[in-house]
Design goal:
- The protein is of the alpha+beta class.
- Strands 1, 2, 3, 4, 5, 6, 7, 8, 9, 10, 11, 12, 13 and 14 form a 14-stranded mixed sheet that branches.
- The protein has helices at residues 53-66, 81-88, 146-160, 190-195, 207-213, 233-244, 255-262, 318-322, 327-347, 392-396; strands at 43-47, 75-78, 98-103, 109-122, 125-137, 165-170, 179-187, 225-227, 249-251, 274-281, 284-298, 306-317, 352-356, 371-382.
- α6 (233-244) packs across α7 (255-262).
- It starts with 42 loop residues before the first strand and ends with a helix.
- It binds tetradec-13-ynoic acid - COA thioester (YNC).
């Protein structure tokens, strides 16, 4: 019945048809409480300092034990401290958006929610949002209606900065998705995925057939493909902007943000979080693609503790800009690029490559041997009405 969500400025189920797009509620900072709502006895609000190794470790440990699992509780996200910093300390980040709840006596961190600012283009309008992520509550404190309190607190802190809109995703259905995507998975190390229970052995198949099916060449094939460097930033940004103009909801990155999200760097931990490649032809950048890394813990498996998962991030190609309606040409090009992305991800020891049914992914998922997963990802906006956006899978039917 959405006891909490029905009190919030979000669109309701049953509102159909084309409606006027825009904010649902208008307020000023004067309307916003200056102090957080009290927590139940024994708990207190804290602001986490993610620049501190000790505090990021506490957030890491809370999430490592209590963040998102699949329906069968076989895997749980294991965001490393470096990836958490990359995700929550993007340009414009604010310490006060890293909100924790501690047990007063033990000092233990038992809940967390975060936001980063994002400038979002929705159709032809621009909105500044708080992108809310990493909501998590210790398993022992579930079902006690702490979530609404955390959401109201991150909303309050955003509102005090005059941010009135939110962007978030969730695996569960809430009022009311702007878009719904399905997860797709492409095995890179089929044997390991089979051993951890991620990839089933299809009837009438044998492990060696599956291994052969997902085998990849050693070397990439696209002429001019190389790792992105800082000097490519303007070219990649320009390509990103022009290519993503075809989509209805896209972050509008500043140069600083594009540097943060796309340029590959080795973190102080020695880890790499994001991989971006460009194609250079006669001194011009004609294509790019990127993927990032999140491990998942394997729960209760004797042989393996983690799987290394690459997630498709953004890409762009002059082919799609030059001939926006020429799907066959773009399909060909994206398949060349993504095939190389798989080869590179395999080289970096990823076990599986994930992608969602968004952007132009429908043009390569099947050919690149991605299989549809059980998981869905719903996209939401807070305090904004946007007519639904159909995903890449729907678009596929229109080809
Ligand atoms: C969820 N994921 O429906 P109703 S995603 C939003 N997002 O409210 P309680 C959620 N709401 O139905 P529990 C939600 N999950 O009565 C549940 N809810 O209206 C709603 N899991 O609260 C739910 N992380 O505290 C219900 O539930 C109410 O103890 C029930 O805790 C839920 O980060 C949770 O999946 C998810 O740690 C914290 O199960 C817990 O069950 C947990 O009794 C594992 O809560 C980790 C997990 C969620 C990942 C994410 C995005 C979060 C977005 C939040 C919304 C932001 C709005 C924008 C704000 C900024 C606006 C500005 C400006």
């Amino acid at each position: 019945s959405y006891k909490f969500w029905q009190t919030q400025p979000v669109p309701r189920f049953g509102e159909e048809g084309q409606l006027e797009e825009g904010p649902l509620r208008t307020q000023t900072v004067d309307d916003v409480p200056k102090e957080p709502a009290p927590l139940v006895d024994g708990f207190e609000w804290v602001t986490m300092d993610l620049t501190s190794d000790d505090e990021i470790k506490e957030v890491y440990e809370l999430l490592n034990g209590h963040y998102v699992e699949d329906d069968e509780a076989m895997f749980r996200f294991n965001y490393s401290p470096s990836i958490l910093r990359w995700s929550m300390m993007s340009p414009g980040w604010k310490k006060e958006y890293h909100v924790g709840v501690r047990a007063i006596q033990s000092r233990k961190l038992v809940a967390f929610i975060s936001a980063i600012p994002v400038n979002l283009r929705v159709r032809n309008k621009h909105i500044i949002c708080s992108e809310v992520n990493f909501l998590s509550i210790h398993k022992k404190l579930r079902g006690k209606r702490l979530t609404p309190v955390l959401i109201k607190e991150i909303t309050r802190r955003s509102n005090l900065n005059e941010i009135w809109q939110g962007l978030y995703t969730a695996g569960i259905v809430l009022p009311k998705p702007v878009s719904t995507c399905r997860y797709y998975h492409r095995a890179l190390n089929w044997q390991k995925l089979y051993e951890v229970g991620f990839s089933p052995l299809p009837p009438n198949s044998k492990p060696q057939y599956q291994v052969r099916k997902y085998a990849l060449p050693e070397s990439t094939a696209t002429k001019g493909l190389r790792a992105m460097e800082e000097k490519d930033l303007d070219a990649v940004m320009d390509l990103y902007k022009r290519y993503t103009a075809r989509y209805d909801m896209v972050p509008d990155y500043s140069r600083e943000e594009a540097y943060h999200w796309f340029v590959p760097k080795i973190e102080p931990s020695g880890e790499q979080v994001v991989w971006t490649y460009v194609v250079e032809e006669n001194g011009k950048i004609t294509d790019f693609f990127s993927f990032f890394s999140i491990e998942s813990s394997v729960i209760g498996n004797a042989k393996h503790n983690v799987i290394k998962v690459a997630y498709m991030f953004y890409y762009g190609s002059e082919v799609g800009i030059r001939e926006p309606s020429d799907k066959p040409a773009l399909k060909l090009r994206l398949n060349e690029l993504i095939h190389d992305a798989l080869i590179l991800a395999k080289r970096f020891k990823f076990d599986v490559f994930n992608a969602l049914s968004l952007m132009d992914n429908a043009l390569f998922l099947e050919q690149q041997k991605f299989g549809g997963g059980d998981g869905q990802l719903h996209y939401y906006l807070f305090n904004y009405r946007l007519n639904p956006i159909s995903g890449g899978v729907d678009r596929k039917n229109q080809l």
